[in-house]
Design goal:
Helix content: 40-55%
Number of helices: 4
Structural class: mainly alpha
Shape: globular
C-alpha cells in the first residue's frame, strides 16, 4: 500500500481506519431514507465487504476488514456501546488539547 509507505503509517492503522468508516457509513448514513428492501441489500453488501470478500480485491492475501469487524461494547467513557479500535488512529497527534484521544482509542482503558 503506497499510502502506508509514503505516510510512514502502518497498514493496520490505515485498514482499521477504513473499517471504522465503513461501519459508520453502513450502520448510519446509508440507511437514512432507505426502504426495507434497500436496507436488506445494504446489509448483504456490508456483510460481504466486512466478512466474505477475498483479500485479493483489496490487494491483500486476506480480507483486511475481518480483523476489525468486532461487536460494539459498553465502556466507562460512553453512554452508548462503541466499537473499540485495535490500533491507535493517531488523533491525539492532531488534537489541539493535550492528552485528547478519540472515543474508541485502545490507549484508554475501558
Amino acid at each position: 500500500m503506497a499510502l502506508s509507505t509514503t505516510a510512514k503509517v502502518s497498514k493496520a492503522i490505515l485498514w482499521e481506519h477504513a473499517a471504522m468508516y465503513l461501519h459508520w457509513f453502513y450502520e448510519t448514513q446509508f440507511r437514512q431514507g432507505a426502504s426495507e428492501q434497500e436496507i436488506a441489500i445494504l446489509e448483504e453488501d456490508y456483510h460481504y465487504i466486512m466478512s466474505e470478500a477475498p483479500g485479493e480485491i483489496f490487494g491483500e492475501r486476506k480480507n483486511p476488514f475481518t480483523r476489525y469487524n468486532t461487536q460494539k461494547v459498553k465502556t466507562k467513557r460512553t453512554d452508548e456501546p462503541i466499537r473499540l479500535r485495535k490500533t491507535c488512529c493517531l488523533y491525539y497527534l492532531t488534537s489541539e488539547e493535550e492528552h485528547d484521544y478519540c472515543i474508541s482509542c485502545p490507549k484508554m482503558t475501558t
